[in-house]
Amino acid sequence: MVRGRLAGGLLTSLALVGGPDGMRGAMRSFARTIEGWWSDSGTPRLDEDVRARLIAAADEVLGNRPINDVLAARDAAAVDVLALRHVQDHDVPPGA
Question: How many angstroms separate the Cα of 37 from the Cα of each of 9, 29, 54, 62, 70?
């Protein structure tokens, strides 16, 4: 749960599940599935224009960093958060 919260919003999370290709990979793999989730909302479509906008937005949010770098930063932050929780839960003085 900590990793998911540190990953960012839906845009970032979707880019991360796209693997090394980020949002491009997510759109390639999951666009049809996502459209199926939306079927009760009318007829929204992930056409080429929408996909291009999502890819550009994800690239901007992620700072054009490789997905592996984003994942490593997220995981390092998760370790830090869990360490702080441990300190709080066990009343351990900082640095002990």
Answer: 18, 14, 17, 25, 27
As a whole number of angstroms, the distance between CA 59 and CA 23 comes to: 8
Question: How confident is the prediction along the chain (96 residues), in pLDDT tens digits per residue?
Answer: 555 565 667 778 888 889 999 999 999 999 999 988 888 888 788 999 999 999 999 999 888 889 989 888 888 888 888 888 777 777 666 565
Residue 84, amino acid = L
Amino acid at 89: D
Contact 70, 16 (CB under 8 A): yes
